[in-house]
Amino acid sequence: MCRGLASLPTTCLERAKELRARLGIFCQKADSSHSEYSNKADQVRPTPDEALKWKESFVTLLKNKHGLATFRKFLILEFSEENIAFYLACEDYKIPKSTSKLDAMAKKIYEEFIESDAPREVNIDHETRNITKFNLVKPSISCFDLAQNKIYTLMEKDSYPRFLRSALYQDLIKKATYKSAKQQISSKKSHT
């Protein structure tokens, strides 16, 4: 670290690190992945009932492919897409694999999401980061469970309620409800 930065308060350094990570992710997303996720979410055409069910619970939202794509788009707009990416990477990690693949995947997930200054570093506390690092000495299917649970809770308690209030979700509900009402009117007209 340069001498000038060393003299700054820790909070300033942490904030600068956070901004650097967010700007780095923003630049990456602007190039390719942002348009990829935007296009996927723009093509999402859930039924009105399907979209309305997302309000029932966070689990319901994540289990629905359209809900997951729309939630991911929301997180991209909020600059916190790394949370769902980490959560899904952990879910994929839990699918049985050979020990050598497990080790390689664990290392990749750690370097991408957990390590300090990781390109898509998730917001977890120091203790969770240390426990996860220790778990990687001998990777197992459960080595990311603590960090994954922290990120899941963060999304459920913070991102999910904001998603439900967001213009993205509200517009989707309006469009889906309007389309459904229009189809019902057309259907009634054709039967008379």
TrEMBL record:
InterPro entries, A to Z: RGS (IPR016137), RGS_sf (IPR036305), RGS_subdom1/3 (IPR024066), RGS_subdomain_2 (IPR044926)
Domain of life of the native organism: Eukaryota
SMART domains: RGS
Pfam families to which the protein is assigned, alphabetical: RGS (PF00615)
Location of the RGS domain: 57-173
Gene3D superfamilies in the record: 1.10.196.10, Regulator of G-protein Signalling 4, domain 2
Protein name as annotated: Regulator of G protein signaling 16
